[in-house]
Amino acid sequence: MLPLSAAQAIAAIEAGELSARELFAFYRERAQADAAANGDGLNCFTWVSEEDQDPTIAGGPLAGVPLAVKDLFCAEGVPSQSGSRILEGYRPPYTATSVARLKDAGATLLAKTNQDEFAMGSSTENSAYGPTLNPWDRTRVPGGSSGGSAAAVAAGLAPWALGTDTGGSIRQPAALCGIVGLKPTYGAVSRYGMIAFASSLDQAGPLTRDVTDAALMFERMVGHDPCDATSLQFPEPIGKPTAERLDGIRLGVPAELRAPAGDFADAEVEPGVRDAFERALKLAEELGASVHEISLPHAPHALSAYYVLAPSEASSNLARFDGVRYGMRAPGATDLLDMYTRTRHDGFGAEVKRRIMLGTYALSSGYYDAYYGSAQRVRTKIAEDFKTAFDSVDLILTPTSANVAFGLGEKTANPWSMYLSDYFTVPMSLAGIPAISIPCGLAVPGQGAGATQSGGERGSSGQPDGGSSRQSLGLPVGLQIAGPAFSENRLLDAAHAFEQALGFAEGAARA
Amino acid sequence: MRRAAHRIGAVIDREEVLHVARLARLALSEEELEPMARELSAVLDHIAKISELSLEDVPPTSHVVELTGALRPDEPRPSFPREVALEQAPAVGGDGFLVPSPQA
Amino acid sequence: MPEDATTLSGGAAASGRPGSNGAGPALEPVIGLEIHVQLATRTKMFCGCELSFGEPPNTRTCAVCLGLPGSLPVANAKAVHFGLMIGLALGSELAPRSIFHRKNYFYPDLPKGYQISQFDEPLCLGGRLGDVRIHRVHLEEDAAKLIHEGESGRIHGSDASVVDFNRGGTPLAEIVTEPDIRTAEQASEWLKLLRVTLRQLGVSDVNMEEGSLRCDANISLRPAGTDTLGVKTELKNMNSFRFIERGIKAEIERQRKVIEGGREVTQETLHYDPASGAISSLRSKEEAHDYRYFPEPDLLPVAIDEQMLAAAREAMSELPAERAQRFEAELELSSDSAQQLAYRSELGDYFEAALAAAVDPPAPAQALANWVSGDLLARLGDGEDPVASRVEPAALAALVGLVAAKQISVGAGRQVLDKLIAEGGDPAAIVEAEGLAAIGGGDELAEIVAAALAANLDAAERVRGGNAKAIGPIVGAVMRETKGRADGGEVTRLVNEQLGI
Ligand SMILES: [Mg+2]
Ligand SMILES: [Zn+2]
Fold first, then answer.
1. 20 to 30 Å CA-CA from A506: which of A14, C148, C176, C380?
2. Closest Cα of chain A to C291: distance in Å?
3. Does ipTM top 0.90?
């Protein structure tokens, strides 16, 4: 049995070719093998089901298809640690709404996936449980923070996975692992039970092998949740994407996110990625779309605003980890203050501490207006930029990431270089609009185009066994498509048309 | 407005790092202090780019959701049994969560 | 908050000495109050846990009020409704849109590391109650309860505390006054008016001993007649009206001594110990708090629509001041009577229940008011609620009716009331059983009067001669004979009649 997409698995189960139990056992074995391989595996998982079958299987439209879930989603009785030492072994007494909804629809809980601690990072190197490796090249990162989810799906260790995106944490790892990742409209999916990073930005979404699966999972997640006051009723049902063409669709390409320049040249798109992106634009025209250069004047400032807002909210969200009610407590404290400060010192990793410090500073007396207040105003301008843009175009295209998967340890020494990974994804997060990343070919790192495919030809990406032979073939490039709030159906349809034309869907890496 | 406004992009020094760490209840060892000050300063330096924008008349955005809050009806829902509430606590005393006394 | 108490030297005990010692200009106290009121909702502010009334520790908690990772708050509509009612009662401006903020600080009774409160966009702004202006009213969540060593036998070790999260998340309305209060007595009187107002609204149990009404006072002194504001101190959590009065007095005295001693008052938070009368400083162990308020991203702004406003208006019961006015205007009670009854809602309720009782002969309103706040309360004890007594409102009404119709005398009425308080029952039956019915109208009383005149010829002669006061011995004799059941007025009438006056 080859790894299947969820839709394929459902079809096989419904046709009686496969039982849900066999499917679960197949993936559980693969996931277990990766978890047991320690240093020889990809380290995608922080927990894998010990049962042969999910004991809570409910039946339903998802027919028992196994689901891998990012560690930060609470699942009752299952370790939910958000990649942090401070929550080591924490088993919550309740289940996140989005997980519960997927299970109610018939998904089964296969595994929890590795992530950057509290979703802070773009490489999954910030996990207290060790880095996850990119299945295309094990010397490289899978992106982050939902790196475990992306790598597991790319490697066929799970049919699909649930992730979260605050500034790019679904889209960027999806791009770097060559799969599909959807960040929904803010409020479309309940955040209840997601261990929070930045509340005004966090959204749950699917990481899948193809666009059809993304729609299938998203359909079962959306909707108002009485437990999340910021969640909304989605205005229309989520349909199965079927489009093959882009006729009449106006696509906007923001100059600021095509070729960052001047002060923002740090975010420059590497040649291979640029080539793949430009080819995607040509393809779009071939499919009947019109491509327009547009401007999002404040987009280059999004990263700065984001690195004020997200750490500020995080500094407050992470105050609850105080060693009192759950999680770790540093032993031998002499008094309350000592207990607090040592627990948090020992329990949080370096990047989390950095962001707590940054956020605490930005909110502190005398700095609020200069940092938090200004960042909120930039956020307003960015949202306005998008509104204006969507007056003249239907969807916006950008590269998902300036680069293909980078090497382990390459960006850990310089926080800002890591933060730049989110340059293309953060503007949409601040505006709360939906965006999807789909694979759009391969590129050789740091160079011009590699062995990328375009057009209707089915791509072959082969085995990601690590080592330099992979690099000569190239690594996945992500195409980001963004739309106005609640335009997910349009977005998925457009992504589907690209996907069919690019023919990359079958090309996922395998461990 | 309500708080004295500092200029953005100020480099954060050792003393400020210590002050902020105390607010955040984070112990920082002597070796961690200097790198923290340096890294924060570097990030703040990048963030300072937003001070070039003129934002005086721009309203702040706290939420992108253009709605007002759904309220909850005043209807009881079951609470946890005490064992569940206390199950994950690092230290339990009697029927509650044991902590070093704030008055100690 | 991590604070240690340090007893302040100089003027810890209240001397009770009024006014200044004459050196320099007289100093005038300036007092503002901050009142936290637990709202009488069924469930907590942001979760569905029922409010706790002495349940065993940690049995009223959930993911939200324990601050478990991933949990989210959702505001209780009833708490907002109660907040609006308070705003309406205080004549506040109700914000069409208000915002919750996070107030960040670490303490074991604060599960999330922040309190969800309101900051610069509260639910209600401005207003007035009695002679004190209201600054604002906002909603927030209560902290949990920290049981310190010594308060529980089960805690071992001298340096540990135990947290009970049952109370954590209880909805609070925080009411902040302008600094319009000038004396400790005024503070306590005003707080009583606020309490009765809130009780009347039904938004809170307003019980200071149980902590559902808590009061802090901001106190400063300034030269009388100026409108500068001196350095203020905040006196925390005085849990009875008596302590509030004493605490404020003590702090005023302390500040007076500091200023008159040529020193300066330090801005700080103080704790009043009612047992010793000492005021101590809750000095922070570290630098001043920096709460890092920012808009709560988990909650959207609360918008008050017409429907919510209408519901709040609809739910408003009559407030004490309005009730007093109605008693005066519609029932023609004296203004003293009207206030006495209206400002103590339980008296007002009892009075109105008695008034509504269909008794024959009817009880006039003013007479009934006098009996409630006079004879009845004097017998029950001043703090008592007559509803809790054996005297049914209808029984009191019947009694007052009998007296008013002169079917029994006032004295006999008092005897009936004694009996009602002791045993309850029906006044008519008591009158019957005790033979207290007035001897009125008929020949019986006329014969007794004739006999009394015959026995007091001197007095009768003087009355006839125009000395009205001389009637005393005659009436006395009648009363002796009738054991007080005769109506004084009727006796006088008969005396005059028989003497041909
Ligand atoms: Mg308060
Ligand atoms: Zn609760």
1. A14
2. 8
3. yes
